[in-house]
Design goal:
Strand content: 5-15%
Largest sheet: 5 strands, mixed
Distance between the termini: 79 Å
Number of strands: 5
Radius of gyration: 37 Å
Number of domains: 2
Helix content: 55-70%
């Protein structure tokens, strides 16, 4: 009697759990009257009572009907509330019922090892009741607490693909089947062992598929994290470029405002035959930032940003970047950033190690559907032959030239490296 009461209560809590999950997804339950809610609850209680009283006493055909109705009523409630069919409508009750059943089998098997004559019906109904109470408490906590844990949990669940969700459900089914076979007493021992082996093989295959999917996701995550970092660096470079343009624009306005005054001063000095002072005055004007600032104009604003950013960094080591030519404006920004950022970083690193003239020369040409790039810089006599980095962060920077090669290959291009006459040159051909 107590077991039957526990079944009815746990079945009602299962209904509340499914409704709670639906409402957590944004469905407004206040649209339904108390009368409708009361009828739904009454219907489920009556069905649960009929189910627990008569299920074991009817034939196999009626048991099949009972099981079908047991599941369909949850679909009906979800459809009545949401007014639409969805994957989750079938998946949620199936998963919850399956997890409930799996937990029942596990607990019964464990107790049977110590209590061989324990009543199965009482155990499984008690376990189901406890499981539904715990699930109800968890759903209630998620709905009433808006913190990092609940947000992360909801976000993670939404990211689970349908294929992964189905694999999890199949794994639960198979695990439940294995435990049920182990618990079930039969004289057909060989058949029992074969079925267990069959289910175990399927379970191992599913676990392998899940692990392989996790590996692919991990690789994809690492790739997209790298891409995201490149995009972030690219945005920062462009912002820096625009800030530089704004500063130059401001200085230009200031210079233009004082232009007549400068010309008047120079004219006065020359008229007074103070040639030396006039020359010094002109030299001082020549040192103005707006006159000395070099802005690159390659025809690609992203490349202009990268060149200006690298030129600023190179200037700190007395290194000059000399870029000539044009670059197509129809090129993948991420690969553009990979190619030029890595090659210019390597060139600046190499130039910082030498004395004398430090000029990084960049030659850009578009010819017959191809973009030609040539980047050269002076190097030491003892130069890194294997193109491994000399920086402390070898794990990250060691992939620089490899990433450049991959970016070039994605555009059907070629990369050639030459060392001659104290210069290191990288020649790249890209299809555009």
């Amino acid at each position: 009697m107590i077991a039957n009461i526990l079944f009815v209560i746990s079945d009602l809590i299962l209904l509340f759990n499914i409704i709670g999950i639906i409402s957590a997804n944004g469905t407004d339950l206040s649209l339904f009257s108390k009368k409708i809610k009361g009828l739904l609850i009454a219907f489920h209680i009556i069905f649960a009572i009929v189910f627990t009283l008569y299920f074991n006493s009817v034939n196999d055909a009626l048991q099949f009907v009972f099981l079908g109705l047991y599941f369909i009523r949850f679909l009906f409630v979800q459809f009545y509330i949401t007014r639409k069919l969805s994957f989750n409508m079938f998946y949620l009750p199936t998963l919850i019922i399956s997890l409930d059943s799996l937990l029942q089998c596990c607990v019964f098997w464990a107790l049977k090892q110590f209590l061989p004559h324990i009543d199965k019906f009482s155990v499984v109904k008690s376990v189901s009741f406890v499981f539904q109470i715990i699930l109800f408490a968890l759903i209630y906590y998620i709905r009433t607490h808006d913190n990092h844990f609940t947000k992360s949990l909801i976000f993670g669940l939404k990211l689970v693909s349908k294929s992964a969700a189905i694999l999890v459900l199949i794994s639960v089914f198979i695990t439940e089947g294995i435990i049920s076979l182990i618990t079930y007493s039969t004289s057909e021992f060989a058949l029992q062992q074969n079925l267990i082996a069959f289910f175990l093989i399927i379970l191992v295959v599913i676990v392998f598929v899940i692990l392989f999917s996790l590996l692919i996701n991990s690789i994809s995550k690492k790739y997209f994290e790298g891409t995201s970092k490149l995009m972030e660096e690219q945005v920062k470079t462009q912002l820096s470029h625009y800030e530089t343009l704004n500063e130059i624009k401001h200085e230009y306005r200031s210079f233009r405002h004082d232009y007549k005054n400068h010309m008047h001063c120079i004219h006065s000095l020359i008229s007074a035959n103070k040639i030396d002072e006039a020359i010094r005055y002109i030299d001082k004007l020549s040192d103005t930032h707006i006159i000395n600032t070099k802005l690159f104009e390659t025809g690609n604003h992203i490349l202009d940003s990268i060149l200006n950013d690298k030129a600023t960094k190179a200037a700190k080591h007395d290194i000059t970047i000399d870029a000539k030519g044009v670059f197509t404006d129809n090129f993948e920004p991420v690969d553009l950033c990979i190619i030029f950022s890595n090659l210019l970083d390597n060139a600046i690193e190499a130039c910082a190690l030498i004395n004398g003239d430090k000029i990084i020369k960049i030659d850009l040409k578009m010819q017959q559907g191809y973009q030609l790039i040539s980047i050269s810089n002076p190097i030491n006599n003892i130069e890194n032959q294997n193109l491994s980095t000399t920086k402390n962060d070898k794990e990250r920077h060691g992939f620089g030239i490899s990433n450049v090669k991959n970016a070039v290959s994605r555009h059907g291009g070629e990369l050639v490296i030459n060392r001659a006459d104290g210069n290191f040159t990288v020649d790249i051909t890209l299809k555009i």
